[in-house]
Amino acid sequence: MRKIVIAIDGYSACGKSSTAKEVAAILGxxxxxxxxxxxxxxxxxxxxxxxxxxxxxxxxxxxxIHITFKVNPKNGTDTFLNGxxxxxxxxxxxxSEMVSQVSTIKEVRVAMVEQQRRMGKERGxxxxxxxxxTVVFPAAELKLFMVADMQVRAYRRQKELLDRDQMVDLxxxxxxxxxxxxxxxxxxxSPLRQAEDAIVIDTTHIAFDEQVDEVVRLALSKIVSASRA
Length: 229
Ligand code: CDP
Hints:
CATH class: Alpha Beta
CATH topology: Rossmann fold
Strand order of the largest sheet: 2-6-1-7-8
Bound molecules: cytidine-5'-diphosphate
Structural class: alpha/beta
Number of helices: 9
CATH superfamily: P-loop containing nucleotide triphosphate hydrolases
Oligomer: single chain
Radius of gyration: 17 Å
Largest sheet: 5 strands, parallel
Order of helices and strands: EHEHHEEEHHEHEHHEH
Shape: globular
């Protein structure tokens, strides 16, 4: 069977990552969390006090940043920044509060997209993010665009944070999601938008297993047609 590329884009906290992880596990594909890469860059910028308005400093910093993923049977994958696991750190609010600003920077996007394309060379991947179907893999065989009501998204994100021992007020979660949606959809460089050939999945009212089944069904049909072609 031919291996395909599955691109999952959408707003923050719509269930992209959890769906992508599960679908990748079922298909025996590799899951790549592109958001974790932008979060890792943000963490590096925070820790090294990189000025977001100094392109020279940014380019120099990007040369020092090496992001890798390791499979972790418990939660899918762990993100490593220069050899150290940053999985916990990159999910914290201080990173969430800055990541969308960092993601507007052209130099950052160019560096991340190049790495993401390299990771997808072997195909057989499920990648989630904001510009995967539109910019990173415009020829992906399956493109999905996930949406959900704000309240549902905020509850889900708050629960995820609680599971990681982080107590965050629901209003603060909503505020962060709103701000990121706003920056992500209006930035000049590859803004978040639905690819013309993407299938929309609204996860507001469907159970997690249902949404995974639906994506696996769509993927299998694309795998069959790609193998026939
Ligand atoms: O998990 P959540 O939906 O909160 O976001 P994420 O996937 O971890 O991404 C964090 C941020 O990185 C987003 O709000 C975007 O600003 C940025 N991002 C991006 O610009 N392009 C991507 N392909 C993925 C993430």
